[in-house]
Design a protein that fits this description.
The protein is an alpha+beta fold. About 20% of the residues lie in helices and about 35% in strands. The strands form 2 sheets. Strands 1, 2, 4, 7 and 9 form a 5-stranded antiparallel β-sheet that branches. Strand 5 and strand 6 form a beta hairpin. Helix 1 runs antiparallel to helix 3. It is elongated and about 80 Å long. The two termini are about 15 Å apart. About 20% of the residues are buried.
Length: about 220
């Protein structure tokens, strides 16, 4: 009987591995600062909204406002678990050429994540120095301590910091956040239908039980 029990467990164990859920795209949020002129979360002061070439201008040491920051609200994401997120931004002019004195600008822009209180969390990530429009993607997952801060605040917020010389600026065209994880199981109580995999495993289990019993009788 012990062998029979173990054999049935083996069949159902294999089945559970086969139907294990894999992370899927749960939601995607985007801001088009160029063509749509979407406003960032920080743009409550008209002085902060400076546009050029279908983009918002991000400046260091901006005296007109407290500076750019963006927030993507995650409260609408319904999931069994959130496993990772990707933040993709499109920008240009983070490495403007020499000025009229012949000296190269020392631009050094970084993306900095913020918690629910808009305080910096984790280590900032450098933007690529480029003159042309460039797309850069940052990935966050449960292996990073800051990921728990993001989930706890039900939002992903970020800003840009300049760690180079002088007052600089760059053009920001868009930002998109994509959330991956395990969706909530679909339940329809008015018409419960057994999953095909479950029926198959149950049938295999019964067949295995019958085969073992028949083998025992012939001995």
């Amino acid at each position: 009987m012990r062998k029979l029990f173990c054999a049935v467990l083996a069949v159902f164990g294999l089945g559970s591995v086969a139907v294990q859920a894999t992370p899927v795209e749960l939601s995607s949020f985007s801001k088009d600062y160029g063509l749509n002129k979407d406003l960032a979360a920080s743009m409550t002061n008209s002085g902060c909204k400076e546009s050029v070439d279908n983009a918002w201008v991000i400046r260091s040491n901006n005296l007109k406002c407290t500076g750019y920051f963006e927030t993507f609200d995650l409260t609408s994401v319904l999931a069994e678990s959130i496993d990772s997120m990707t933040l993709t931004i499109n920008y240009s002019d983070t490495n403007r050429g020499p000025n009229n004195t012949g000296h190269q600008h020392h631009e050094n822009w970084h993306m900095q994540l913020l918690n629910a209180e808009l305080m910096p969390i984790g280590t900032s990530a450098a933007l690529v120095r480029t003159n042309a429009i460039y797309q850069q993607t940052f990935t966050f997952n449960s292996a990073q301590a800051l990921f728990n801060d993001i989930l706890a605040g039900n939002a992903l917020s970020f800003l840009f910091t300049h760690k180079g010389n002088g007052t600089q600026d760059f053009n920001l065209y868009s930002a998109q956040l994509t959330v991956f994880g395990t969706p909530l199981p679909v339940v329809n109580p008015s018409n419960p239908v057994p999953a095909p995999t479950g029926i198959l495993l149950f049938g295999l289990g019964l067949a295995l039980i019958g085969g073992i019993r028949n083998a025992a009788k012939t001995k």
